[in-house]
């Protein structure tokens, strides 16, 4: 294992994957150095040990190219290398960890929505559209889990619910997605605009209106909500 190389004080908005990427270490090494699990929650002010980079001996033959778990582009858009790297780390961790079945995730999302005052049929429509209730889903944009929440939106959701959420945790992932849906509904002029905000971003929708693909997304969510109603 890499030798410890220093300490880092956690700041608001940090995620384990982002800290690992910033220091050029593997997320799995960072977790091991701090005896943390994939589902651990971190808090601002706490310190993390940062493992040093391993010194690899020169290989006598070139290493075989390994296909990434998460591609670097989607629908013609390429994402920054650091984002894709973090996405691949998260995907590897989720692949190596037990997660609820799709049926179990459906129940988790519905129960979370009821507890938080959101129509279960709407939350289920988002979860099915985003990932098909697949908690192991990770996009090139590093949208994580069933509700496909990126880390910055996960921090926003954490602020909304008043506790730090871990998007790799299935229950926290559902909580993050539902919290965002609830907030968008409360701050949008109508449900269609709220749905669009989840996909395109609320500010972008207010500034630019709905793009064509956003309109298709809104229609898909509304159709799926009918199926879950």
Could you walk me through the main structural features you see in this protein, from its secondary elements to its overall organization?
52% of the residues lie in helices and 7% in strands. The protein has 10 helices and 4 strands; from the N terminus they run E-H-H-E-E-E-H-H-H-H-H-H-H-H. Strands 1-2 form a two-stranded antiparallel sheet. A two-stranded antiparallel sheet has the order 3-4. A hairpin with a 2-residue loop joins strand 3 (73-74) and strand 4. Helix 4 runs antiparallel to helix 5 (120-131), helix 5 packs across helix 10 (212-228) and helix 6 packs across helix 7. The protein is globular, with a radius of gyration of 19 Å.
- Share of helical residues: 40-55%
SSE string, helices as H and strands as E: EHHEEEHHHHHHHH
Please tell me what the overall shape is.
globular
The level-1 CATH class of the largest domain:
Mainly Alpha
Radius of gyration: 19 Å
The oligomeric state of the chains shown is: single chain
Q: Which regions contain 5 or more consecutive residues with pLDDT less than 50? A: 53-64
The spatial strand order of the largest sheet comes to 1-2
Q: Please state the second-level CATH architecture of the largest domain.
A: Orthogonal Bundle
CATH topology group of the largest domain: Lysozyme
Number of domains: 2
Ordered list of secondary-structure elements with their pairings:
Blueprint: E1 4-9, H1 16-22, H2 27-33, E2 47-51, E3 73-74, E4 77-78, H3 81-95, H4 102-116, H5 120-131, H6 151-161, H7 170-187, H8 191-200, H9 202-208, H10 212-228
Antiparallel strand pairs: 1-2, 3-4
Helix pairs in contact: 1-3, 4-5, 4-7, 5-10, 6-7, 7-8, 8-9, 8-10
């Amino acid at each position: 294992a890499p030798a410890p190389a220093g300490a880092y004080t956690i700041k608001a908005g940090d995620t384990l994957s982002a800290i690992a990427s910033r220091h050029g270490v593997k997320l799995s090494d960072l977790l091991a150095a701090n005896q943390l699990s994939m589902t651990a929650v971190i808090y601002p002010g706490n310190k993390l040990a940062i493992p040093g980079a391993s010194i690899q001996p020169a290989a006598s033959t070139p290493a075989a190219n390994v296909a990434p778990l998460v591609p670097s582009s989607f629908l013609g858009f390429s994402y920054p290398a650091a984002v894709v790297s973090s996405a691949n780390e998260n995907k590897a961790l989720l692949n190596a960890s037990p997660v609820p079945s799709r049926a179990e995730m459906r129940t988790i999302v519905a129960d979370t929505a009821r507890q938080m005052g959101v129509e279960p049929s709407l939350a289920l429509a988002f979860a099915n559209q985003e990932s098909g209730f697949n908690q192991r889903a990770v996009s090139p944009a590093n949208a994580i889990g069933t509700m496909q929440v990126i880390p910055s939106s996960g921090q926003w959701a954490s602020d909304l619910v008043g506790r730090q959420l871990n998007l790799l945790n299935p229950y926290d992932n559902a909580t993050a997605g539902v919290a965002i849906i609830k907030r968008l509904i409360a701050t949008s002029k109508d449900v269609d605009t709220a749905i669009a905000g989840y996909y395109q971003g609320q500010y972008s929708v207010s500034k630019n209106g709905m793009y064509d693909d956003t309109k298709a997304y809104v229609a898909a969510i509304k159709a799926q909500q009918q199926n879950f109603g």
